[in-house]
Amino acid sequence: MASTLSNQLELQPHFVLVPLMAQGHMIPMIDIATLLARRGVFVTFVTTPYNATRLESFFTRVKQSSLLISLLEIPFPCLQVGLPPGCENLDTLPSRSLLRNFYKALSLLQRPLEQFLNHHLLPPSCIISDKYLYWTAQTAHKFKCPRVVFHGTGCFSLLSLYNLQLNSPHTSIDSNFEPFLVPGLPHRIEITKAQLPGSLIKSPDFDDFRDKITKAEQEAYGVVVNSFTELENGYYQNYERAISKKLWCIGPVSLCNENSIEKYNRGDRASKSNCLNWLDSMIPKSVVYICHGSLCRMIPSQLIQIGQCLESSTRPFIWVIKNRGENCSELEKWLSEEEFERKIEGRGLIIRGWAPQLLILSHWSIGGFLTHCGWNSMIEGIGSGVPMITWPQFAEQFLNEKLVVEVLKIGVRIGVEGAVRWGEEERVGVMVKKEEIEKAIEMVMNGGEEGEERRRRVEDLSKMAPKAMENGGSSYVNLSLFIEDVMAQSAHLKA
Ligand code: UDP
């Protein structure tokens, strides 16, 4: 009798999702949780108390639904590792010098997670974990289930990074600004050293940590990607071949948010603003939406250039400003001295704090998206059929820019030449002038025949995206195959 019950419990899929505590990683994981639960999977979503408060509205909706998603809150050991209290998400980290402490705190989540799983009625069938939580490889091994990695980025950048790491073409180039070929891609793509992700640059502080990530990645069973095969044709197959692992493109996962309420509080409590009424009052495709994601910290003089550009332009806009620290007070001083908000009244809207990005992007009045090229923003822009003005900052964002501008041809570069390394924003001479911002916005909003073509291409892609997600579409089928495959692997490991 007891063994029949345990056999039955093993048949119930139980997926444990362990995201990196950063908005660009947690948000798509929440969407993945929803997609899995809609297929009858029991999901345990692991996070910490502060992050849980940001996801409150999501979990309130879950409680009112029949979805089996359970929240596991593990206290984040800030004090133990020398982090300020409440510093539980990368966007609350005061400085890069505390990054190692943050990763250390993440690794201390291993024991409480394993204690929880030891006492859980349902054995885990799969752990989907962000690559940064490398120690989940040990947890998966202990609980005899496959570990699947979620990077949070697309196949184009994953393949590019893989090939750059393997062949190291940058190590034989002296100049920071001399273009060289990214090896092994279906298209001819060039990059410079100045644009490379920080992970390719040797760093004594992080090399041991990166080695652990790489080792765990090599041992992983497969990779899930928030993308769809039609978008990254050539790239997903080559990446799958390169890593010799299973890969499932199951996105755009943001499309699981169907109604306005789901879109409104996605990822955090949206700042109070009447943006929906305001957007309703605009002309179709007339508004420029400007948002630089959750982590980017632009210096005040750069933010002021954006402000000046928006002030002198005649275009309607929504500008998202993250109210964080000194950068913000200097900008606020400028805004108030300039009487910026009085001057742009009726034509522009500032959102301070968290913007309901998905809701905004999917509104018919949005005509262009000035973005920092985080992968979620890219794929949300594509899903909404909005052409982009690309302003990459760091990480793999320059690669995302290449996909959007050179391969898909749905964006215009603002023209920034080098990455801004976190904590070095003041030092890097990559200031973009008001005129350059204006020029790129005009190209996207009013780019003549070329602009129309660009818009048509992204609108075509936006029609493919929901098709991929609906019953029978590529991402829908991939999600089914993914669940079946890891369940079979889990049974095999437990046998
Ligand atoms: N986002 C949002 N409101 C904001 C800022 C960001 O909803 O004010 C969401 C955005 O829709 C995306 C995620 O946060 O899903 C940011 O991820 P992305 O990969 O674009 O950039 P990151 O913040 O990781 O640099």
List strands and helices in order, with pairings.
Blueprint: H1 2-11, E1 14-18, H2 23-38, E2 42-47, H3 49-54, H4 56-64, E3 69-73, H5 78-81, H6 99-107, H7 110-119, E4 126-130, H8 136-142, E5 147-150, H9 155-167, E6 180-181, E7 190-191, H10 207-219, E8 222-225, H11 235-243, E9 246-249, H12 260-264, H13 275-280, E10 287-291, H14 300-312, E11 317-321, H15 325-338, H16 340-343, E12 348-352, H17 357-361, E13 366-371, H18 375-383, E14 388-390, H19 397-407, E15 411-413, H20 434-445, H21 448-469, H22 474-494
Parallel strand pairs: 1-2, 1-4, 2-3, 4-5, 5-8, 8-9, 10-11, 10-13, 11-12, 13-14, 14-15
Antiparallel strand pairs: 6-7
Helix pairs in contact: 9-11, 14-15, 14-20
Bound molecules: uridine-5'-diphosphate (UDP).
Uridine-5'-diphosphate binds next to α2, α17 and α18.
EC number: 2.4.1.-
InterPro entries: Glyco_transf_N, UDP_glucos_trans, UDP_glycos_trans_CS
Pfam families: Glyco_transf_N, UDPGT
Structural overview:
The structure is a single chain. The chain has 495 residues and is α/β, with parallel strands linked by helices. The protein has two domains: 2-256 and 468-494, 3-Layer(aba) Sandwich (Rossmann fold); 273-467, Glycogen Phosphorylase B (Rossmann fold, 3-Layer(aba) Sandwich), CATH 3.40.50. The protein is built from 22 helices and 15 strands. It has helices at residues 2-11, 23-38, 49-54, 56-64, 78-81, 99-107, 110-119, 136-142, 155-167, 207-219, 235-243, 260-264, 275-280, 300-312, 325-338, 340-343, 357-361, 375-383, 397-407, 434-445, 448-469, 474-494; strands at residues 14-18, 42-47, 69-73, 126-130, 147-150, 180-181, 190-191, 222-225, 246-249, 287-291, 317-321, 348-352, 366-371, 388-390, 411-413. Helix 18 (375-383) links the parallel strand 13 (366-371) and strand 14. The protein is globular. It starts with a helix and ends with a helix. The model has no long low-confidence stretch (mean pLDDT 94). Bound molecules: uridine-5'-diphosphate. Uridine-5'-diphosphate binds at residues 23-24, 27, 266-267, 291, 293-295, 320, 354-355, 357-358, 374-377, 380. Residues 23-24, 27, 266-267, 291, 293-295, 320, 354-355, 357-358, 374-377, 380 line the site of uridine-5'-diphosphate.
